[in-house]
From TrEMBL:
Organism: Arcicella rosea
Keywords, sorted A to Z: NADP, Oxidoreductase
Protein name, as recorded: Succinate-semialdehyde dehydrogenase/glutarate-semialdehyde dehydrogenase
Listed Pfam families: Aldedh
Lineage top rank: taxon: Bacteria
Length: 460
């Protein structure tokens, strides 16, 4: 089968690639295993040098890499450039801090001495999504290469050129062959690889269905897994919020990356006192968004990543309306070629509406009006997901008190859920388990070995 680059702004096929055969994949796993035998003995300095080099190459090629992202999945070009810089920051971050994070941790047992020593576990297999083609890979690859593991990545079929480009960056940076390998295979073949004895851990960022498929294989073969799955972040607006500034963040929270972010603000929950004002201002600003070519710097909202994604989200809107939702804005495809969908706001969604518990992966906001802060928290927590969430209030102590009650992996006060190299990222409930980024992100695929020295004369 072939894997294709299809420009979602035109729905035209740009390039086709043959999938790797089973024997090519087998040989790639063999090379990654061989590379591990050497890489695990390299010093942190050698590993850091490689990661810094990858970062500097990314920055040097920022424009061309960003264009590749925009071409393959429709991200606005300025945001694509931002993604390349963020990815480079992640490589630099682990190169700079990795050795400190991985230094021996000396313990203080009752008798003798003990320490924890960190060591790599081997070849890791990562399955990555199309929505941040460089950043998602950076989160997985950078800490693990610093640890001394070697990496196989099966990237999303929508972004084959980005997947290939990342492997090329590693080779250009001087990476040994087999240290980082891009596997050009479809999702259907990914989970079968987990049983390979040479693969020691797996990580997936994507949908719950794909995560469950990969993780159940990992469980069967007793391998560690990390899952970063979907989200339906609540964006809570309290009566003391600065409404104008909050509306600006609400727009960014919903439409960043054309609305295709796991941590996008998806459910807007306003307390009664300011609900009308927020909804009016939010609707007015959403209506002004300029939808169009993602390569143009003045476009606010590009296409969805594919025609399928556009069809799917409009079907979700239709199901929501059949279930009683009201469309305040948008709700349809844009009348042009490409996978464009209008900025949309839905209200009147009750818990029996089919989309109430679903993730809306596109520029579609759902709006809820609640009596007070307690009702806002209850609604925020009434979700199968537990990724992020935001609270807008001028009273930070109140925001922190409410953050304690939100059942997610991340809560942001006065900002949509966001990401940077030195902050941990990950969820609870249906949003997965494990953490990426920050010091926590280097802690997943590493053997924390206890080394205990006893005195022969210590009591039994
Ligand atoms: P997806 O279909 O699950 O695709 C993600 C990756 O999984 C792709 O590489 C895909 O390959 C692969 N895949 C598909 N089926 C698989 C299977 N049965 N076994 C193993 N791998 C399989 O996800 P998507 O719908 O494209 O991406 C959007 C989802 O990702 C959203 O739910 C979003 O919230 C989530 N996401 C989460 C995070 C986070 O950090 N929590 C970040 C970004 C996105 P193919 O492309 O070849 O099908």
């Amino acid at each position: 089968m072939s894997i294709q680059t299809i420009n979602p702004a035109t729905n035209k096929v740009i390039k086709s690639f043959d999938e790797m055969t089973d024997s090519t994949v087998d040989s790639a796993v063999g090379k990654a295993t061989k590379a591990f035998d050497d890489w695990k003995h390299t010093s942190y300095e050698v590993r850091a040098k490689l990661l810094h080099k990858v970062a500097s190459l990314m920055r040097a090629k920022k424009e061309s890499l960003a264009q590749m992202i925009t071409l393959e999945m429709g991200k606005l070009i300025a945001q694509a450039e931002g993604e390349i810089l963020l990815s480079a920051d992640i490589f630099d971050y682990y190169a700079t801090h990795g050795a400190t994070f991985l230094a021996d941790k000396v313990l203080a047992p009752e008798h003798g001495t003990a320490l924890i020593r960190y060591s790599p576990i081997g070849v890791l297999f990562g399955v990555e999504p199309w929505n941040f083609p460089f950043y998602q890979v950076a989160r997985f690859a950078a800490p693990n290469i610093m640890i001394g593991n070697t990496i196989l990545v099966k990237h999303a079929s929508l972004v084959p050129q980005c997947g290939i480009a990342i492997e090329e960056l590693f080779l250009e940076a001087g990476s040994p062959k087999g240290l980082y390998t891009n596997l050009l295979i479809s999702g259907k073949r990914a989970s079968a690889l987990v049983s390979d004895k040479r693969i020691k851990g797996v990580s997936l960022t994507g949908s719950e269905a794909a995560g469950a498929s990969l993780a159940s294989e990992a469980g069967k073969y007793l391998k560690k897994s990390v899952l970063e799955l979907g989200g339906s972040d609540a964006f809570i607006i309290l009566e003391d919020a600065d409404i104008d500034k909050t509306v600006d963040w609400a727009i960014i929270g919903r439409i960043n990356n054309n609305g295709e972010c796991c941590i996008a603000s998806k459910r807007f929950i306003a307390v009664e006192a300011i609900a009308d004002e927020f909804l009016k201002k939010f609707t007015d600003k959403m209506a002004l968004l300029k939808v169009g070519d993602p390569m143009h710097k003045d476009t606010d909202l590009g296409p969805l990543s594919s025609e399928d994604a556009a069809v799917q989200i409009v079907q979700q809107i239709d199901r929501a309306v059949k279930g009683g939702a009201k469309i305040i804005l948008g709700g349809k495809r844009v009348d042009s070629e490409g996978a464009f969908v209008q900025p949309t706001i839905l209200t009147n969604i009750q818990s029996d509406n089919p989309v109430y518990y679903e993730e809306l992966f596109g520029p579609v906001a759902t709006f809820y009006r609640v009596k007070d802060e307690q009702a806002a928290i209850e609604l925020a927590n009434d979700s199968p997901f537990g990724l992020g969430g935001s609270i807008f209030t001028q009273d930070i102590a109140r925001g922190e008190r409410l953050a304690n009650q939100i059942d997610t992996g991340m809560v942001f006060i006065n900002h949509p859920t966001w990401t940077q190299a030195d902050l941990p990222f990950g969820g609870t409930k249906g949003s997965g388990y494990g953490r990426e980024l920050s010091e926590l992100g280097i802690d997943e695929f590493v053997n924390k070995k206890l080394i205990r020295v006893s005195n022969l004369d210590d009591p039994f």
